[in-house]
Specification:
270 residues; globular
């Protein structure tokens, strides 16, 4: 889905990034914007000020949540805020919110890892658009939401493989990736797919798994982990695609062509 930033100037100044010096150059330090806390304030207290923040400081996030993630209506509808509140007051959702508060009171480790990952991507591609990153609770609907320079992390999808409520809704292989440690890799994967696939999409055709494998290889390279350590199945048209064979091909190709840059790999059309 393509989206546009609607934030007023003061919100942009206060939002996701703090500028600072590091090793003689300027870098952007990622701050995860806690949209989930603003939403929870509205849900738990019926706070009018929180609702105002959702509509003025977080219009894009609110629209995505209501219309694309939860599918409970359109933001223009008069009673949609009440529907949103009732949705989150469900007892199961309240348990998710409580666990998110407990596990994610501090996200500084994730912010550090995102900062380093985006900084490395910026070195590979000077035109790489640094995204605004925010947290939400999607009621187990989505893990990562992406748009133009935007990443939304659904913290309720990363509460740990052994989190009891997951047993009812997800298979064992799905639960393995629903951990804090996978947030950065997942966020980077889906953002790279969104950002670069438009450059090659007319010619991808039947080689979608191959292109996804390239992105996973890049993510592994950027994060400094072996490619085999991050190979989730890709869901397309009601079936899961195992990209492991294609990932092995990409790994072999990059070893044979060490001068091929990350950007060149992402822009290849075959």
């Amino acid at each position: 889905m393509r989206t546009r930033h609607l934030f007023p100037l003061f919100a942009l100044l206060l939002a996701a990034f703090v500028w600072g010096c590091h090793d003689g150059h300027i870098k952007e330090e990622v701050r995860v914007d806690r949209f989930d806390r603003v939403l929870d304030e509205y849900v738990s207290l019926g706070s009018y000020s929180a609702l105002q923040k959702m509509n003025t400081q977080y219009p894009q996030q609110t629209k995505l949540l209501i219309e694309d993630v939860l599918n409970i209506g359109h933001v223009e509808e008069a009673d949609v805020e009440q529907r949103l509140r009732y949705f989150y007051l469900d007892s199961t959702v309240q348990l998710l919110l409580e666990e998110v508060h407990r596990q994610y009171a501090d996200m500084s480790d994730i912010e550090t890892d995102l900062t380093q990952a985006f900084e490395r991507m910026k070195k590979e591609d000077p035109n790489f658009p640094i995204p605004h990153v925010y947290a939400q609770v999607s009621c187990l609907r989505q893990s990562i939401v992406v748009g133009d320079t935007l990443i939304g992390i659904s913290l309720d999808k990363y509460l740990g493989a052994d989190y009891p409520p997951y047993q009812e809704y997800f298979h064992a292989n799905q639960r393995e990736s629903m951990t804090r440690e996978n947030i950065v890799a997942d966020a980077l994967t889906f953002y790279l797919l969104y950002t670069y696939v438009s450059l090659v999409s007319p010619k991808i055709g039947s080689s979608v798994p191959q292109y996804i494998a390239r992105v996973h290889w890049v993510v592994a390279h950027i994060l400094g982990i072996p490619p085999r350590d991050h190979v989730p199945s890709y869901h397309q048209r009601d079936k899961d695609i195992d990209i492991s064979p294609e990932l092995a091909k990409v790994d072999a190709y990059m070893k044979e062509h060490p001068k091929t840059s990350i950007l060149e790999l992402l822009r290849m059309k075959d």
